Amino acid sequence: MRLMIGTLYEVVLDCPDPPALAEFYRDVLGGEIEIDDDGHWADLKREGAQSLGFQRSLGHVPPVWPGDDGDQQFHLDIQVADFDVAHEQLLDLGARHLESHSGFRVYLDPAGHPFCTVG
User: Fold this and answer.
1) Residue 6 pLDDT > 80, yes or no?
2) Which conformational region is residue 73 in: left (phi greater than 0), alpha (psi within -120 to 50 degrees), or beta?
3) Confidence band for 106, pLDDT divided at 50, 70 and 90
4) CATH number listed for the domain at residues 61-119
5) What is the CATH number of domain 1-59?
6) Residue 24 pLDDT > 90, yes or no?
7) Domains 1-59 and 61-119 share a fold
8) What does the alpha-carbon distance between residue 17 and residue 40 come to, in Å, rounded to a whole number?
9) Where are the alpha helices (DSSP H) in the chain?
10) Is 4 exposed, middle or buried (0-12, 13-18, 19+ CB in 10 A)?
11) Are residues 108 and 114 in contact, defined by beta-carbon separation less than 8 angstroms?
C-alpha cells in the first residue's frame, strides 16, 4: 500500500489583483468569494468541488504558452457543454483566446494564466 501524507486542499494562482481574478473565475465556475482584509488573498469556494486561491504577487510574470521551455508550469482544464457559447462568454469576461484544437481550446485569463476548455 502506498503512503498518503495528505489531501489537496486548494490550487493557488499568483496574480497582481486577487479579488479581480477571483471574480473572473467565479463568473466562469460559480461559487462564493472570500477576500482577506488587505486584499492580498482571495478564495473561490465551490460546494462539492476543488476551491481556488488567488495570492497577490506584485512581480507576477504570466507563464508562456506553449511552455516548451518550462515557463508554463501548469494550466487548468474547464469542461464546457458548448465550445462556441463558452468561447463568447469567456471573451466577454476578459479571457484571451490563443488557439483551438480538436476537443479543446486554449485561453489566457486576465492575469495571463493559461487554461483550456474541454468538451
Assistant:
1) no
2) left
3) very high
4) 3.10.180.10
5) 3.10.180.10
6) yes
7) yes
8) 8
9) 18-29, 83-93
10) exposed
11) yes
Q: In one letter, which amino acid is 54? A: F
Question: Can you tell me the distance from the alpha carbon of 1 to that of 108, in angstroms, rounded to the nearest whole number?
Answer: 40
Average pLDDT over residues 30-41: 96
Residue 64: the pLDDT is 78
* d(C-alpha 110, C-alpha 22), whole Å: 10
Residue 71: how many other CB atoms lie within 10 Å: 12
DSSP conformation class of 48: T
Instruction: Identify the band that residue 71 occupies on the pLDDT scale cut at 50, 70 and 90.
Output: low
Which residue carries 477576500 as its cell? 35
Q: Would you say residue 5 has pLDDT above 70? A: no
Kindly report the average pLDDT of the chain as a whole number.
91
Q: Under 8 Å CB-to-CB from 88, ≥6 apart: which residues?
A: none
Q: Where are the domains of the chain?
A: 1-59, 61-119
Amino acid 15 reads C
Query: How buried is 22 (Cβ within 10 angstroms: 0-12 exposed, 13-18 middle, 19+ buried)?
Result: buried
